[in-house]
Amino acid sequence: MTLLQYQVFKTVSDMGSFHKAADVLGLTPSAISHAIAALEKELGFAVLTRGKNGVALTNYGEHILPYINAVLNSDESLQQVVMEYKGLKAGKVKVGVFSSVCTNFMPSVIRSFAERYPAIRIEVFQGTYDEVRYWIKNGVVDFGFLSSSSCGDLQFEPFYRDPLLCIVPKDFQKSEATETISIREMSGHHFVAQRESTDADIVNYLKANHLEIQTNYHVVDDLSTIAMVAGGFGICIMPELVMNDIPYEVGRYRMDPDASRIIGLACLNQDMMAPAVRTLYQHILQEFTNIGPETL
Fold it and tell me: Taking the model in full, what pTM does it have?
């Protein structure tokens, strides 16, 4: 089996199409088909199923994909080490991000990093906490942004404290004469809630403060949540970074007790990072750290 066969298999699984994979790799669809057929012949089982809706992984294909990702990542690491020995900074880095990191951090990261290391290419994969964690564990990305409450058993380097805010409709009338909003005051209102996998930090805050919310609205993305709040259908809790991207007019309050989510970089093993990966990893920490170890 060859690296080209591995790359073809990964690209077909990513694109869901032989023709799209051929376009990405600069090969003919026939060459893609032959590479997959040769791979399956050597393996002794099918890794892909072909249907009217495109191409999908078989059960066997799903099981071997993480190992093929690991082989391809190791080859990329080798190429980067060779380039580093030659005095060059080059390569490709794949980064997993969630929504508010993508909009608030990544444009600046990509621009500032490209100015210093123009030969290193960054690929960004956006998803939920669960998706980013899965991508890291399965070698889809080299490292990713996660919160401390969602990183699980991954290595985690915290670097940014993001306050949690209570978001309310514009005409919201507080029942308590305070600048913050208390658990007691929030408990008297309906909530617009997100799913736990999307918003683990907020769910943890609610559980820690024994706040059992009432809601008829179960949404997935931040913009939909704020739109419902702006429409007067309830209140919600949202990280401050998220609110930088929101076009709706709403009120916002710090909460009592106060809360934050801790954003950091997560990976499988910092010691095994390829040179380009390690360079970007350190660049992000230097650019955006707003907390020190003593505050954690």
Answer: 0.69
